[in-house]
């Protein structure tokens, strides 16, 4: 379904009834990141998945990108659907949007769930600097299809993950080059800084033992949040919602049930 917000159209799906779960995907992907969550959670919740601007079937503007704009899109989506409160779950880039939403529009959040992400993409030290430099160079010299192959292999390198790898690569390589490039560079310029300490929303941070950033990186920002806990899922890489969906769903369910 399409909905008009902020001078663009967002493509979204709306499943189930109950308390609202809004699921936000990662960079260069789509709402299909959540294929393993929608059937599980829509039995007990109203689950909304959306293609963020520049991604999937949503509008791909020429220049209008950035976490702040994506956050405004999400706020207007909730307004259009007359949703007053939601648990916002953000994976990777979606986590940045979820963080920004919790900082800027806390009254909309029932809970905040951050998945293999962080509050300061612009202040990740050497990891962030290398990512920005290497990925930008890779894009400019080898192109998006080669980058899609590389990213997909890094996320799903094991033999038994070949189907997951191929499916993610297909999804990633059909991105609009300009939309991907501007989404990436604006993401890497974004950060909450000191505003993180003002977030009061009940928060779950989910990390993977083999993510790009180590456990201590996540623990450090969990300690700066007022009401947050950290769970690390074993035998998982960056895309935990895809490579360990049962374990992820269980942890999210426990958190939603206040266990």
TrEMBL record:
InterPro entries from the UniProt entry: AB_hydrolase_1, AB_hydrolase_fold, AB_hydrolase_sf
A Pfam entry, by short name: Abhydrolase_1
One term of GO molecular function: hydrolase activity
Domain AB hydrolase-1: 20-192
Keywords, comma-separated and alphabetical: Hydrolase
Protein name as annotated: Alpha/beta hydrolase
Annotated organism of origin: Winogradskyella litoriviva
Higher taxonomy: Bacteria, Pseudomonadati, Bacteroidota, Flavobacteriia, Flavobacteriales
């Amino acid at each position: 379904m399409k909905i008009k917000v902020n001078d663009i159209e967002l493509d979204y799906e709306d499943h189930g009834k109950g308390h609202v779960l809004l699921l936000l995907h990662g960079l260069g992907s789509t709402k299909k990141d959540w294929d393993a969550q929608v059937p599980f959670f829509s039995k007990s919740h109203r689950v909304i998945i959306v293609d963020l601007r520049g991604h999937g079937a949503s509008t791909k503007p020429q220049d209008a990108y950035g976490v702040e704009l994506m956050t405004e899109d999400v706020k207007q989506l909730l307004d259009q659907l007359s949703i007053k409160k939601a648990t916002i779950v953000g994976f990777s880039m979606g986590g940045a949007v979820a963080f920004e939403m919790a900082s800027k529009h806390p009254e909309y959040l029932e809970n905040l769930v951050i998945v293999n992400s962080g509050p300061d993409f612009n202040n990740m030290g050497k990891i962030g600097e290398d990512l920005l430099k290497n990925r930008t160079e890779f894009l400019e010299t080898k192109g998006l299809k080669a980058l899609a192959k590389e990213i997909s292999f890094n996320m799903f390198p094991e033999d038994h993950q070949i189907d997951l790898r191929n499916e993610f690569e297909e999804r990633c390589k059909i991105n609009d080059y300009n939309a991907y490039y501007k989404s990436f560079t604006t993401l890497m310029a974004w950060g909450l800084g000191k505003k993180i300490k003002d977030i009061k929303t009940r928060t779950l941070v989910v990390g993977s033992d083999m993510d790009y950033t180590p456990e201590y990186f996540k623990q450090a920002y969990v300690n700066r949040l007022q009401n947050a806990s950290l769970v690390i899922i074993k035998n998982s890489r960056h895309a935990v919602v895809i490579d360990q969906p049962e374990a992820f769903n269980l942890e999210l369910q426990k958190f939603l049930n206040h266990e």
